[in-house]
Design brief:
Layout: E1 2-4, E2 25-27, E3 30-45, H1 47-50, E4 59-60, E5 64-66, E6 69-76, E7 88-95, E8 102-110, E9 120-123, H2 128-131, E10 134-136, E11 142-150, H3 151-154, E12 164-179, H4 193-203, E13 209-213, E14 216-220, H5 222-228, H6 230-237, E15 247-249, H7 258-276, H8 285-312, H9 318-322, H10 327-344, H11 347-359, H12 366-375, H13 379-390, H14 392-399, H15 402-410, H16 412-426
Parallel strand pairs: 13-15
Antiparallel strand pairs: 1-2, 3-12, 4-6, 5-6, 6-7, 7-11, 8-9, 8-10, 8-12, 13-14
Helix pairs in contact: 4-8, 5-6, 8-10, 10-11, 11-13, 12-13, 12-15, 13-16, 15-16
Length: about 450
């Protein structure tokens, strides 16, 4: 607690008593230090196959996040130190993201798989008063044990079951902040610029350009389009701008994979066609007309959704836009919007579509999504699709879809990458490929508690 004294003139003998305003002012603040906790369970299958990979070589868990930092568990089947001659297995937790002087508490637990709950626990949480939090200096700094468990004892223990080990790691990142009394607070309303521009689009006031999409006219504003898209800026104001910038005809804005859905639609309607076949072409007209209307409607909805994002800075309600409640329709629109975003240089829309497609990965749409991700260089979305398809329970079903046929024709190089993902599952070696190709040298002592920067 701090105290501030104010100087006041000494009152004269005939002055009145001191007023309340002359009383000393006081203030206070509180420093709060706490841990942000999280844990990660790491299952190591095929332990016997991992033996012999070499001293100092490790198996890494997936990266996980706690307290704003990334972490990874490193298991050394042949030990970490040459002097131990592969007598022990080593286990460490490492800082996997950039950070300086990250203070944290750790707990490494080798789980007893017999049901007796006799876990092997090394906890830093219980020694807080003794030594305080551990400080990791750099990315790659580690905490753990070179001699975590003797290999001969481990292989005859209840910790190893069905050639598998289970490790649980708890991390508590220490963070501090100071709180004091708030003398005032002024609420700031959320930005409404997107709503205001959206209303400008809906009202059409001041529009100075229009787009024709399959006979439908959309009114818009050149300056808004140019500010949001470099492609529109070049088209409307660049040296090679269109001759007629009052009305621009838009063609072929749907994704190439749309023909896959048309084929799927026609295939699904084939039984109806066979029923009505009477040696006349007339019976096919309703089918052809329906497909034509579908293409026309897609163009209309897609450009409408594109303008919605440009003005409102948010995705439209896909169900409201398409009039359908199925996830298939939502995924279809997101796929086409992704292609349109790449065509018009709308990076934020592109990320929105990637995020939406990641959430809705499904058997009947994942192959076409993967093709789009490859064609438009969406590497994170591509990785999600590859992992989904490579799972044994998904692979056969995906290969029977029309989208997979399109994937083979349009992106044959992706099949090689898919085979690599499948191999990781089938050969029980995916854990050897998940970690980053980095060698981390920590120069720790016999207990692995001293760290150095990654070289």
């Amino acid at each position: 607690m701090g105290k501030i004294m104010r100087e006041t003139s000494r009152p004269s003998s005939n002055s009145s008593p001191a007023s309340p305003s002359s009383a000393p002012a006081t203030s206070s603040s509180t420093s709060i230090t706490e841990t942000v906790k999280g844990s990660h369970k790491f299952k190591i299958t095929g332990y016997s196959l991992s033996k012999g990979i070499g001293i100092g070589k490790y198996i890494a868990s997936e990266i996980f996040s706690v307290g704003g930092y990334d972490w990874a568990i490193y298991f050394y089947p042949d030990g970490k130190s040459l002097e131990d001659n592969a007598t022990y297995v080593s286990l460490f937790i490492a800082l996997a993201s950039e950070g300086t002087d990250v203070r944290a508490l750790f707990e490494l637990t080798l789980l007893d798989q017999s049901g007796k709950e006799r876990h092997k626990v090394h906890s830093h949480f219980e020694r807080t008063l003794e030594s305080g939090p551990y400080t990791l200096k750099y990315r790659g700094s580690m905490w753990g044990y070179k001699r975590f468990f003797k290999r001969t004892a481990l292989e005859t223990s209840d910790y190893l079951k069905d050639d598998c080990l289970s490790v649980n790691c708890s991390v508590g990142v220490v963070k501090s902040h100071t709180e004091g009394p708030k003398t005032y607070s002024i609420a700031i309303s959320p930005s409404s610029i997107g709503h205001q521009f959206g209303k400008l689009l809906e009202g059409g006031k001041g529009s100075d350009v229009s787009f024709e999409v399959n006979g439908e006219i959309f009114a818009a504003h050149k300056l808004v389009l140019a500010a949001r898209s470099a492609v529109f800026r070049a088209q409307l104001f660049g040296p090679m701008k269109d001759q007629n910038t009052q009305c621009i005809k838009v063609e072929d804005i749907e994704a190439p994979v749309f023909k896959v859905y048309i084929n799927f639609l026609c295939a699904s309607l084939l039984p109806l066609v066979l029923i009505y076949v009477c040696n006349t072409v007339v019976k096919y007209v309703p089918i052809i007309l329906f497909v034509s209307v579908l293409i026309f409607t897609l163009h209309f909805m897609l450009f409408r959704a594109l303008l919605h994002v440009i003005y409102w800075d948010s995705l439209p309600d896909m169900q409201e836009l398409t009039g359908l409640s199925s996830k298939w329709a939502t995924t279809l629109m997101s796929q086409h919007l992704l292609a349109a975003a790449d065509r018009y240089g709308l990076d934020r829309l592109r990320l929105m579509c990637e995020a939406s497609l990641c959430e809705d990965v499904a058997i009947n749409t994942v192959a076409t999504t993967l093709a789009l991700a490859e064609q438009h260089h969406c590497f994170r979305l591509k990785a999600v699709c590859l992992k989904f398809i490579a799972r044994p329970e998904n692979l056969r079903a995906v290969m029977q879809t029309d989208g997979f046929e399109y994937l083979k024709e349009s992106c044959p190089s992706v099949l090689t990458e898919l085979l690599e993902y499948v191999a990781r599952f089938t050969e029980h070696s995916d854990f050897l490929c998940k970690h980053r190709n980095e060698q981390i040298l920590d120069g720790s002592d016999i207990n692995g508690r001293r760290v150095k920067q990654r070289l």
